[in-house]
Amino acid sequence: MSSIWIILTGALIASSCAFLGCFLILRRMAMLGDAISHSILPGIVIAFLVSGSRDPLPMFIGAAVFGLLCTIIIQLLRNQGVQADAAMSVSFTALFSIGIILISLFTQQVDLDLDCVLYGEIAYVPYDTWTWHGIDMGPRAMWGAGAAFLLSLIIVRLFYKQFKLTSFDPALAMAIGIPVAVFHYLLMGLVSITTVASFESVGAILVVAMLIVPAATAYLLTERLGVMLGLSVLIGTLCSICGYFLSVVLDASIAGCMTMVAGGLFALAFLFSPHQGVVTRWWIRKKLRTQI
After folding, report:
1. Number of domains in the chain
2. Closest Cα partner for 8 from 258, 194, 240?
3. Which phi and psi angles does 277 have, rounded to 5°?
4. How far apart are alpha carbons 231 and 112 in whole angstroms?
5. How many CA atoms lie less than 13 Å away from 173 in the CB half-sphere?
6. Which of 12, 131, 206, 263 could disulfide-pair with 145, CB 3.0 to 4.6 Å?
7. Looking at the domain assignment, is residue 268 inside a domain?
8. For residue 105, is it within any domain?
9. Which of 140, 116, 119, 134 is nearest to 57 (CA)?
10. What's the CATH code of the domain at 155?
11. Contact indicator for 14, 240 with CB cutoff of 8 Å
12. What are residue 132's DSSP bridge partners?
């Protein structure tokens, strides 16, 4: 039964990350997930120091606040003329270093494993369950990832045209009266919530792969946003299933194997994509030369 919980939790995390990752890829902000996943560390530590416990709610709130703070700082720096990659690097390194300093200062009082925060361990997910009225409802991480995924689905479905237009042509969206900044921060908020809901299981670093790789793979396979969103969720789920069984065979990290499968699927799409694959384009050029 534990293997089913692990696969299901991994599939929900990968799907929720990949779904939002599509918009980050289109906006050329793929590394924003990396920035947010690092910047939430001080929020986790501060939430622990204030609440005195490791309850999920205060840690979730603290991490979400610092994730949103990171996106706000990045946008403010970009508005002042700082390049996007430089703004992300400055923001998340500064916030991440604050978290490291807090851990080093309060290492005797804070029962917080930095390796767990960074790398996570999805194998322990089945043992941290949520009980409601005496009924075991399953792992907390699964419910958190599922809630984040459902929230993203609802909001994107309600404002699909706005998200689509602001991702492809923000200048046109602004010209026709769509509040581009509002939808930018709404998307960043969803990314922050999803990152916070995922890091407990796959870690603050490995969640970046789930935000980028399945979405980038789907981007190579289609030229339609709706299809891209569906493919990214499918690829994320496939990474979870195949990665778990690969970890059993190799006796290795489950989250690491899921990420490795995602990298393998991206490599296949990069080589054999119907329109953008390296091997496909080489074969088409060879056929054209033969015909000519």
Report:
1. 1
2. 240
3. -65, 140
4. 37
5. 19
6. 12
7. no
8. yes
9. 140
10. 1.10.3470.10
11. yes
12. 135
Evaluate whether 131 touches 137 at the Cβ level (below 8 Å).
yes
pLDDT per residue as tens, the chain (292 positions)? 577 888 888 888 888 888 999 999 988 887 777 788 778 878 878 887 887 766 667 877 887 788 888 888 888 888 888 887 788 888 888 888 888 888 777 755 555 555 555 556 677 777 777 777 777 777 777 888 888 899 999 999 999 999 999 988 888 888 888 898 888 888 888 888 888 777 766 666 678 888 889 999 999 998 889 899 999 999 999 988 998 899 889 888 787 888 889 999 999 999 988 888 888 888 888 888 887 7
Q: Which domain holds residue 156?
A: 2-205
Angle, CA 153 vertex, CA 210 and CA 226 arms, to 5°: 80
Look up tokens 């120091």; give the residue.
Answer: 49
Any alpha helices (H) in 138-179, and if so which ranges? Answer: 140-158, 160-168, 170-175
Give dist(CA 3, CA 10) in Å, integer: 10
- With residue 69 as reference, give the H or E element that holds it: helix 56-79
Nearest Cα to 236, choosing from 9, 4, 13, 3? 13
- As given in the structure block, the two tokens for residue 204 are 């603050």
Q: At what angle are helices 225-250 and 2-26 packed, to 10 degrees?
A: 140
Tell me the C-alpha to C-alpha distance, in Å, between residue 32 and each of 22, 35, 91, 104: 12, 5, 10, 26
Domain membership of residue 270 (yes or no) is no
Is 250 contained in some domain?
Answer: no
Inter-residue contact 216 to 30 (CB < 8 Å): yes
Q: What's the pTM?
A: 0.84
